[in-house]
Write a structure and sequence with these properties.
With 250 residues, the protein is of the alpha/beta class. It has one domain: Alpha-Beta Barrel (TIM Barrel), CATH 3.20.20. The protein contains twelve helices and eight strands. The chain has an eight-stranded parallel barrel, surrounded by five helices. The structure holds 2-phosphoglycolic acid. The site of 2-phosphoglycolic acid (PGA) has 13 residues, from strand 8.
């Protein structure tokens, strides 16, 4: 069985002090949840402190991006080993904001994913279509294309460590969520693709998160869908009460 993964993508929010405050509130409110995994992805500057705070606690630590080289003259970049060093076990790759604002393309996303796997970081690979692409009836073709390209040369055994996040771009930060039926249909299409690329057993083990305006009001319905295995939460992960309610989906 796939254990659900609820992740907070904090984006470019929270100083170290604010990050500590939020994580302390999450730890206090979480209780003992054993049937679901909780992950926070603070900005780089807070990773070290938050890593120390969540060590041995039921919250995992992830980064929002990573560079694919091991080290070198790459001003501004962060290597996978540096993320491991501060306690990260996950890293997001290919978020649509990275693709759109920073120019990450499928080939770079694939390199980042391989670099993460080589360093025992679980990559969360984001895929998703834009509004014009959806309106043109191309949503599935775009998403499946991103899945193929992003997973190039990834083996079935490596897939056990990979998480896919379906995040329709038009739903991110807009308050406009995909209907749970539309999200389920895309998740099922992604899982079918994994069956074609690998095999049914591998495909059924991969967690596919939904992201895009996930909030306390819609999490229960999303999580009730058979192929939705968690959520990648932006805005609603920045406050303890809303994120805790999302974690406690029914
Ligand atoms: P949102 O962001 O929840 O604020 O829509 C989700 C994401 O970008 O991961």
């Amino acid at each position: 069985m796939r254990s659900p993964l609820i992740a907070g993508n904090w984006k470019m929010y929270k100083t170290v002090g604010e990050a500590v405050e939020l994580v302390e509130a999450l730890l206090a409110g979480l209780g003992s949840t054993t049937d679901r995994e909780v992950l926070v992805c603070p900005p780089y500057t807070a990773l070290d402190r938050i890593g120390a705070l969540v060590a041995g606690q039921p919250i995992a630590l992830g980064a929002q991006d990573v560079f694919y080289e091991a080290e070198g003259a790459y001003t501004g970049a962060i290597a996978p080993r540096m993320l491991r060093d501060v306690g990260c076990t996950y890293v997001i790759v290919g978020h649509s904001e990275r693709r759109q604002i920073f120019g990450d393309d499928d080939a770079q996303v694939n390199r980042k994913l391989h670099a993460a796997l080589a360093n025992e970081l679980r990559p969360i690979m984001c895929v998703g279509e834009s509004k014009p692409q959806r309106d043109a009836g191309q949503a599935e073709a775009i998403v499946i294309g991103q899945v193929h390209a992003g997973l190039a040369n990834v083996t079935a055994s490596q897939m056990q460590s990979v998480v896919i996040a379906y995040e329709p771009i038009w739903a991110i930060g807009t308050g406009d969520t995909a209907t749970s039926a539309d999200a389920q249909a895309m998740h099922a299409a992604i899982r079918r693709t994994l069956t074609e690329l690998y095999d049914a057993e591998t495909a059924s083990g991969v967690r596919i998160q939904y992201g895009g305006s996930v909030k306390p009001e819609n999490i229960d319905e999303l999580m009730a869908q058979p192929d939705i295995d968690g959520a990648l939460v932006g805005g609603a992960s920045l406050k303890a009460d809303s994120f805790l309610r999302i974690v406690q989906f029914r």
